[in-house]
Structures are given as structure tokens and as C-alpha cells.
Design brief:
Helices cover 72% and strands 0% of the residues. It starts with 8 loop residues before the first helix and ends with a helix.
Length: 189
């Protein structure tokens, strides 16, 4: 399993980890809401909350476009974990966790959205664009978390959204519950 002559498995794991981080970040950076908005004649960063997520896309372009954004963002999370597992098949759980973190960071602080918009904020600095990463995080959870954690998190999100009408509150609460559940599982393991 040597990477090259004189290399070790540790060298290969380090390079594979870096590859997973870079690929997952770049995958997360694909600004699906921005691209769909541009196809519809909308700059997602200039309407509603200015966020490149499904909720803002639904408000700005209609529910069907918001759902498409959510589905594509979920698939970014799923794809990142699948790619990571292929890169490090002997460490699929660790690879998936690394990919999950990097893909959500990529969505939240998108290199491509930032470069495409090149907008300057009030302090005169380049404004980093992105979304909250909730749908992308959901995609990673689907791949990593046990079904009962996903069901519990989605049930909580649905209840909070139904009672408060705040999508982001429901999503953030669900992600918190899922994270606590995953931490508890890792401690008990």
C-alpha cells in the first residue's frame, strides 16, 4: 500500500484526506441556487434574504425552483460522502465525516459564488457568498447517520416549521439534534 517508493500508508492517508477536503469543498462551492436563479433571470443574492438556499430560491422563483435547489444541494452532500468513501475505502466513516464538514463549508463559503459575483461589502472587502448549508448537511447525514437519527431530526424540523413558520429554525434545530445524536453514538461506540 505504499504511495511511492519510500512512502507509507500514513503518507497515502494524508494525501487522500487532503484530496477529500479539496474535492468536497469545491463540490460544496457549486452555487446551485445562483445558477438556477441566473437561468430564470434572478440574482439570488439580490432578492429576499440574499441567501443561496432553497428557501430563498422558493420565495424568489417559486416553490418548484426552491425544491430543485434543495434536491441539488442534498445531492452535493451525498456525492461528497460517496466520493470520499471511494478515495479512502478502508476508512469510510472517517472519510465521510471529513467530506461532510468540507462540503458544508464549501456551500457556506462558496469559492465559485464569490468569484462569480465579485461583490464588495460595506468595508470595501470582497464579500464571501454562500448559503447556510442545511440541505447539503442533510445530504451528508443521509449517508452517515442511522435512519432513526434522521427520522428524529426531520420530525423535529417539521414540527418546528409547522408551529413557528421559521424554516431556518427548524433546520438548525434538526441539525443540532442530529449532531448530538451522532456524538452520543460515537461516545458509546
Amino acid at each position: 500500500m505504499d504511495l511511492h517508493e519510500g512512502g507509507t500508508i500514513l503518507d497515502a492517508n494524508l494525501l487522500n484526506t487532503i484530496l477529500i477536503i479539496v474535492l468536497s469543498y469545491l463540490l460544496g462551492s457549486v452555487p446551485t441556487a445562483y445558477f438556477i436563479g441566473r437561468l430564470r433571470g434572478v440574482n439570488i443574492f439580490e432578492v429576499g434574504s440574499g441567501n443561496m438556499g432553497g428557501t430563498n430560491a422558493a420565495r424568489a422563483m417559486g416553490i418548484q425552483w426552491g425544491v430543485l435547489v434543495v434536491v441539488l444541494d442534498v445531492l452535493k452532500g451525498v456525492a461528497a460522502v460517496l466520493i470520499a468513501r471511494e478515495i479512502m475505502p478502508s476508512h469510510t466513516y472517517a472519510a465521510g465525516i471529513i467530506a461532510a464538514i468540507a462540503v458544508v463549508i464549501g456551500h457556506s463559503w462558496s469559492l465559485f459564488a464569490t468569484l462569480l459575483t465579485m461583490s464588495i461589502n460595506k468595508t470595501g472587502k470582497l464579500s464571501i457568498k454562500g448559503g447556510k448549508g442545511a440541505a447539503t448537511a442533510l445530504g451528508t447525514l443521509i449517508m452517515i447517520a442511522p435512519a432513526y437519527i434522521i427520522v428524529a431530526a426531520l420530525t423535529l424540523a417539521a414540527l418546528i416549521i409547522a408551529f413557528t413558520r421559521f424554516v431556518s429554525l427548524g433546520v438548525l434545530a434538526a441539525l443540532l439534534i442530529a449532531a448530538i445524536g451522532m456524538i452520543a453514538l460515537s461516545i458509546m461506540d
